[in-house]
Input
Amino acid sequence: MIGSKILVVEDEKILALDIRNRLQKLGYSVAEITDSGEEAIKKVAETHPNLVLIDICLAGEINGVPVAEIIKKNFQVPVIYLTEYLELDKNSSNEPFSYILKPFAEKELHTAIEMALYKHQMERRLQEEKQRMRSIINSMGCAVVVTDTNGCIQLMNPVAETLTNWQQNEAYGKDIAEVLSLVDKDTGEVIENLATKVMEVGEVLKIPENCLLITKDGSRIPIGDSVAAIRDGYGNITGAVLVFQDISQRKQTEAQLYRNAFYDTLTALPNRLLFYDRLRQAFERGKRRDNYRFGVLFLDLDGFKGINDRFGHGMGDDFLVAIARRLESSLRSGDTVARFGGDEFGILLEDIKDVTDATNVAQRIQDTLKLPLHLNGHEILITASIGIALSSSHYDQPENLLRDADTAMYDSKKQGKACHTVFSNPI
Output
């Protein structure tokens, strides 16, 4: 590029002056002329040339090749060798435009310099762009891991290092499956190599649900986000990039939102909404299985208002929590007990044989509730009225079964409380 500053390193004085004259004629500025490698390194540091022309065979302790390597490495200045055929074979590479064969014409000199400067400029821009991209990746708040086409790690940003407990220098070149060990949280099964998979399908893929990252120190972290194939300007896949983050907090928030939506905050029992959903599922199973039967118990505590009035609502809340634990202990693991609100509870008994199974559970609950409850130095006795409704072909909606269990519960109240009643359709 015209006007560029060039340092000439040539120990043949006449040739060095001739080169300077030619360069000036072509429009270049000659920073210095020197005849030794040691002096060349010093002049590069002082004058900061755009390019160095250096003879391979120099007088002194070191010749042109190691000097050129020092200049390129330490000062990032492009170098063109001045050489002869025999010297080229022994000392220099055959990279295009990295050398000029003596003797040379002005056109050859001009072409070599312009190409060397252009190549250096492009390499510098590419390096700057790489550095810019690296800075962007390192600034991201999520983990980024880049692989080559073989699925071997080429880059990890600081967040990825922190999450995986692997440093980039130790992970570089390793198969990504070794560094990003992923398993399914529920099944414990190893999740297939995502980098390999995405390069096969050529599409952006979501990291599977319930994906756990097993870190280098054995910690298990839930992660989520995506993995994509990397393509060059021609559309060819050149690797894969995984972008992920620790979603522990999100999972905890989702779990809390789920509990808030489907569980009673006081007793931690399922609420009416979740109970109804499980009842609906029982209806669906009944449609698919001929012999599948289930029942609903609607339970209301007898005299709970008096406990609140006598001991206060704080004691009343503690009492309801204790009752919830007693109800749970009276059921099978596959059954559901829910708090509908106040002192009302619903119970879903699944896969029962007949009405006897349901009445036995009701009696077991009543026997459990008859045991005195000791809270805060007080002994409290309680009973419950229970209504029972069993699944049958005439029920087509879950709410109808629940309604009839509620009706049977009120019949128990009318009969004197502390008992259970099975709903029967009026003739």
Summary: The chain has three domains: 5-134, 141-247, 263-422. Residues 5-134 form a domain with the Rossmann fold fold (CATH 3.40.50.2300). The first strand starts at residue 5 and ends at 9.
